[in-house]
Amino acid sequence: xxxxxxxxxxxxxxxxxxxxxxxxxxxxxxxxxxxxxxxxxxxxxxxxxxxxxxxxxxxxxxxxxxxxxxxxxxxxxxxxxxxxxxxxxxxxxxxxxxxxxxxxxxxxxxxxxxxxxxxxxxxxxxxxxxxxxxxxxxxxxxxxxxxxxxxxxxxxxxxxxxxxxxxxxxxxxxxxxxxxxxxxxxxxxxxxxxxxxxxxxxxxxxxxxxxxxxxxxxxxxxxxxxxxxxxxxxxxxxxxxxxxxxxxxxxxxxxxxxxxxxxxxxxxxxxxxxxxxxxxxxxxxxxxxxxxxxxxxxxxxxxxxxxxxxxxxxxxxxxxxxxxxxxxxxxxxxxxxxxxxxxxxxxxxxxxxxxxxx
Length: 358
Description:
Layout: H1 12-22, H2 27-30, H3 34-44, H4 49-62, H5 66-71, H6 74-81, H7 88-103, H8 112-116, H9 123-134, H10 143-153, H11 162-175, H12 181-194, H13 214-218, E1 234-245, E2 248-253, E3 264-265, E4 268-270, H14 275-284, E5 289-301, E6 305-316, E7 326-329, H15 333-336, H16 344-347
Parallel strand pairs: 1-6
Antiparallel strand pairs: 1-2, 1-4, 2-3, 2-7, 5-6
Helix pairs in contact: 1-12, 3-4, 3-9, 9-12, 10-12
């Protein structure tokens, strides 16, 4: 069966009743504003709810509104986002905040079409802001919603295809209850996040739709939804250098575009270097190595590439202030330098505990 052939309206009241009685207490639900909805939805892309909670609180405390976000210095912005990963998300947010300031007088628009014109806001985020913050009856279809609708309707089409998503959005738009659009969209997301879960058996006994669900009736809960497999990640082998001079460590800033753009990092080189090559590399920077220690291997997975890293800790002779490489005080890491979690495994060698996901 396709979603178009399913009586989707029969699910509305059971869903809203369930949400009213089972909704999680989340910080962005305590005080609903367009800005807080926007920040939370961007943070929740590719990141678990429990991981987002402390970041959300810290972010909105430091940048409580559109104007503050638009004016924030980049290093401070990236530091606030540090550990959440996918840093283009927050760069796009700032670009959109500047758009809102210049084009809408600092007020986030309520119209779905206007929201789509803002940098980094797609159909789902536009729908979430419009419906949750403004009550506009438009759908907000993410992976959770695609999954619960596919199972409910017994729809075995590939949810990765744009046309299938478009069909589901169109069908939802017909049944979104006026005056309760925000609750309805949040209920769908919540159902997918807590009951109709991915990667294992859904908790059908706790589902308000168990009497209406085609996947449950037909024994398809573990085969739906259908989704094409993503492209295989590229593997990159890298050698990471922790070059230490007393209580200072060599860091460098990544290019302003591409992976981890504008973040700071420990220097690294493609491939696995041996001790001799490491010493040669350090000397080329006009540094004098005193001791070279091989440290742990590490792995970090991005959406499209996987880094497999070999690490070296290199202690060097003191350098003068005119030296061309940047040596940062280790004590400043917590405040000044946004470092991606890709290097978290190496922070322990500096006495720093690093947490977060990229």
